[in-house]
Design the sequence.
């Protein structure tokens, strides 16, 4: 797949410097004004934009601060690929496992109540376009697809600011000598820690109520080659995504835990409100340790060894805190635009990043061809699943946070108690246990009246 | 054979922070990409030291009434300190020319 053209077009920053040093004529920056668009960040949004522009016959420059695309990137672990599949051929992509089972689990201190979904369809191609991946592998591969289509990638180069000319964004400043690179359009795909966009006044710093902090470990099982297949009941390339809520997952914080299976490792992590981490003095390290030690989780991870530890913040403000996406000469995409959906059962972000990168690039390409305007990016995104999904669940996050203690602490305990009661083996008739079990749950939600209220409060979930 | 089934031993061995950080590839830029903007805010005004409680990598440490010390070489570049500080008193810059963390399994 990687051929000579790839090798010659991937130029890292150091290489670039050497070439310049060897050629006096190149001392003035040869990249300045040479490109149709500069893209800040070779994550999934940035590479989707670069690939789209290159396929339209334009010349984008993709600038990555890491040593390779993906080096600075962390996510939970499941990538949804419908848009990527439209943009390029997924054959040869570094995928770990497809998701054959989704499991949602409520953890109280000592109990687990879980629902497992295994539709047969997920075992058939294209596997519901849901795969575990490592960003270090996948993002590098995806950037290579952009390069093969004609994009130019430079790594180890940090964008430090934006150039403004007559009020419009006209390029980027970098940490390289002669580091100014002017271009008619800039796409900001720098992630949720958006230093460049904020520095240029294109967005405000997100408040910590809308940020989640996440810590993740990738674990291997050095003494047991079959551990993953056996413990997660896997055959072939099938994998699982396990989601955990409740006190046993993230203590008193609002958030959840996860386990995803990779080819021969598992990704285990917690993600929860940064506000809670601060005010409840709940450190990511301790929270991860507690989750891993839960009696329903620990047996899955027994005798594991850490391959890599990582951490990240997630912008979870949703539709309400989305910054302006379109500026004079610049567009915001992916995490920079706050495009993350977390409604408990749907945890998405990378797919939305790809979709936004695609629409941003399409708007630029149309504008260059004289057939559009940058603002059509915002319209296209609003009509796409990205903003539609964010708006559909805009009400949910706030409501669930208000009900956190009931939903994630008292109710899970009540359900576990009710199960214990309902299935209790003694010499009493079942009717006695059934009544007691029902009473245990009703007492927690405030009787039948409370149960009805709760159902009404969340009725939009099933609309 | 045992008389009754035993409860399985579910003790999990969690790595120390030092061991965890050891798994992350890191290239030291030589200078800290983190700092505090106004030291006196940390020393005189801040009572909660949120930077300390939320950091997933023990970068921030503080004795009461002091300016925090910053072990920037531990930093996983998650940026939670920048968002968490209610005084907006964290200087956070991207490490330059490819330095800092390089994740393989992010």
Sequence:
């Amino acid at each position: 797949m990687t051929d000579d053209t790839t090798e010659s077009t991937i130029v890292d920053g150091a290489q670039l410097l050497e070439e310049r040093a060897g050629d006096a004529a190149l001392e003035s920056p040869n990249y300045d004004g040479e490109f149709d668009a500069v893209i800040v960040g070779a994550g999934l949004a940035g590479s989707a934009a670069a690939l789209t522009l290159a396929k339209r016959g334009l010349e984008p420059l993709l600038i990555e601060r890491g040593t390779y695309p993906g080096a600075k990137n962390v996510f939970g672990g499941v990538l949804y690929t419908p848009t990527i599949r439209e943009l390029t051929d997924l054959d040869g992509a570094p995928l770990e496992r497809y998701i054959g089972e989704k499991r949602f689990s409520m953890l109280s201190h000592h109990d687990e109540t879980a629902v497992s979904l295994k539709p047969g369809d997920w075992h058939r191609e294209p596997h519901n376009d849901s795969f575990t991946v490592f960003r270090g592998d996948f993002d590098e591969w995806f950037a290579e697809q952009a390069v093969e289509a004609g994009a130019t990638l430079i790594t180890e180069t940090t964008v430090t600011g934006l150039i403004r000319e007559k009020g419009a964004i006209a390029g980027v400043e970098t940490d390289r000598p002669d580091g100014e690179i002017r271009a008619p359009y800039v796409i900001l795909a720098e992630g949720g820690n958006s230093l460049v966009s904020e520095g240029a006044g294109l967005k405000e710093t997100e408040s910590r109520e809308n940020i989640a902090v996440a810590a993740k470990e990738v674990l291997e099982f050095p003494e047991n080659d079959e551990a993953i297949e056996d413990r997660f009941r896997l055959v072939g390339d099938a994998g699982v995504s396990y989601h955990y809520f409740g006190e046993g997952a993230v203590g008193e914080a609002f958030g959840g835990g996860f386990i995803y299976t990779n080819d021969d490792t598992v990704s285990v992590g917690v993600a929860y409100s940064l506000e809670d981490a601060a005010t409840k003095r709940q450190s990511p390290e301790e929270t991860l340790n507690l989750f891993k030690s839960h009696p329903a989780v620990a047996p899955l991870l027994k005798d594991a060894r850490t391959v890599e530890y990582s951490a990240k913040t997630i912008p979870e403000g949703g539709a309400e805190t989305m910054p302006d996406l379109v500026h004079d000469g610049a567009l915001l995409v992916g995490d920079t635009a706050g495009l993350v959906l977390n409604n408990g059962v749907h945890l998405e972000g990378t797919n939305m990043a790809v979709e936004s990168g695609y629409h941003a690039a399409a708007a630029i390409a149309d504008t260059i061809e004289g057939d559009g305007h940058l603002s059509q990016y915002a319209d296209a995104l609003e009509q796409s699943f990205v903003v539609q999904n964010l708006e559909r669940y805009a009400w949910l996050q706030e409501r669930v946070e208000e009900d956190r203690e009931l939903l994630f602490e008292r109710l899970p305990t009540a359900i576990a108690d009710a199960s214990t009661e309902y299935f209790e083996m003694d010499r009493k008739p079942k009717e006695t246990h059934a009544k007691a079990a029902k009473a245990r749950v009703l007492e927690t939600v405030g009787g039948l009246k409370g149960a009805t209220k709760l159902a009404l409060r969340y009725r939009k979930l099933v609309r | 054979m045992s008389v009754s089934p035993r409860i399985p031993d579910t003790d999990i061995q969690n790595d120390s922070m030092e061991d965890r950080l050891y798994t992350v590839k890191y290239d030291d830029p030589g200078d800290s990409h983190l700092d505090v903007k106004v030291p006196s805010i940390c020393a005189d005004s801040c009572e909660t030291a949120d930077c300390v409680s939320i950091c997933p990598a023990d970068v921030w440490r503080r004795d009461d009434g002091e300016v925090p010390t910053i072990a920037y070489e531990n930093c996983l570049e998650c940026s939670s300190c920048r968002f968490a500080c209610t005084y907006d008193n964290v200087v956070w810059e991207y490490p330059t020319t490819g330095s800092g963390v390089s994740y393989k399994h992010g």
